[in-house]
Amino acid sequence: MAQWSLHPSSQSNARVILIPTAFGHDTQAPMAILNAGSELCAFEPRLGIDVDKLAVAQLPGLVDEPPYGMCEAAVTQAWRRQQWPVLLPSVLAASWGAIRALWKHYPTLSVVHCSAHANLMPPPEMTQPDQDTSYGSAAWVELLYQHKLPVIHVGLRSGSARAYAWLKAHHSPIFWAQDGWDPQQVVASLPDQPVFLVVDCSVLDPSLAPAVHHPEPGGVSWLQLLQTCEAIFAARPVVGLSLGGVAVGSATRQTARVVARLLNWLLACYALHSLKVAAQPQPVQTV
User: Fold this and answer.
1) SS3 of the chain: helix, strand, coil, percent, to 5
2) What angle do CA 205, 151, 215 make, to 5 degrees?
3) pLDDT per residue of the chain (287 residues) written in tens, 0 to 9
4) Long-range contacts, 127-130 (Cβ 8 Å, 24+)
5) What is the DSSP string of 124-172?
6) Alpha-carbon span 98 to 241, nearest angstrom
7) Which residues are CB-neighbours of 116 under 8 A, at least 6 positions away?
8) How far apart are CA 186 and CA 228, in angstroms?
9) By the 8 A CB rule, do 27 and 61 touch?
10) Residue 220 contacts by C-beta under 8 Å, 6 or more apart in sequence?
11) Which is the most buried residue in 54, 93, 103, 197, by most CB within 10 A?
12) CA proximity to 22, closest of 86, 76, 93, 75
């Protein structure tokens, strides 16, 4: 079973640090992902990487709120220790705190945003007059544009007319879920600079991950997401990861297991392409 779930490494010798982060009373989703790891074998045969050989530690769960200063502090500490930070937030808007921490050290940072939703500012008619939407879960990506960070959208299939106009005006590369794409097309759209990877599990089709906050039909296939993420790791330094979007409900356990497997894959990609861990030879198939 995956050691990052059952027997995480000590923080002092870890190469990767998992940072579960809750917002408000939603404390269950990040821990559901970590607990689901106890049901997984950590070996990724497609990559030949045994994630159990990678020293992965966990921080105690954080409870943070806008502007997500605790996430920023945790990621800054991980960077100082030369540990790869993996944020597991209950609300994807907390990614802004992690991105802000790394942006200070990588001024040319770009962001790959894998999500069904654009997460740009909603139209005025959908907000209350006294509502601060700047750090809301439906608007946080707009902060990236306001601070002039390059953003590449993967798996997008839901957004307002205003969001579409915004993306078109900012010439954002968009890989629509319904179009299909070659992973190298995503890589070609990336600036030649460090990447922060955000994976909202709503990017997957609801048949795979039903317990998300705003499920959208027609999502990205499992294999397409895995191949796209690996291509990014192979081509660019991925300096941080945020993986979340699980909603608490009747299908949480099923979705958390899928997201835990995705986390294991991303850890294997990091080991193979960033740490240059030697892959185990693949078994010879006999006919």
Assistant:
1) 40, 20, 40
2) 20
3) 799 998 999 999 999 999 999 987 667 899 999 999 999 999 999 999 999 999 999 999 999 999 999 999 999 999 999 999 999 999 999 999 999 999 999 999 999 999 999 988 654 443 344 434 455 566 899 899 999 999 999 999 988 888 888 888 889 999 999 998 999 999 999 999 999 999 999 999 999 999 998 899 999 999 999 999 999 999 999 999 999 999 999 999 999 999 999 999 999 999 999 999 999 876 655 54
4) none
5) GGGS-TT---TT-TTTTHHHHHHTT--EEEEEE-B--HHHHHHHHHTT-
6) 9
7) 155, 156, 157, 158, 177, 200, 202, 203, 212, 214, 215, 216, 219
8) 7
9) yes
10) 114, 154, 155, 177, 203, 204, 205
11) 93
12) 93
As given in the structure block, the two tokens for residue 101 are: 């921490």
Cα–Cα distance list, 125 to 101, 122, 135, 158 (Å): 33, 8, 18, 18
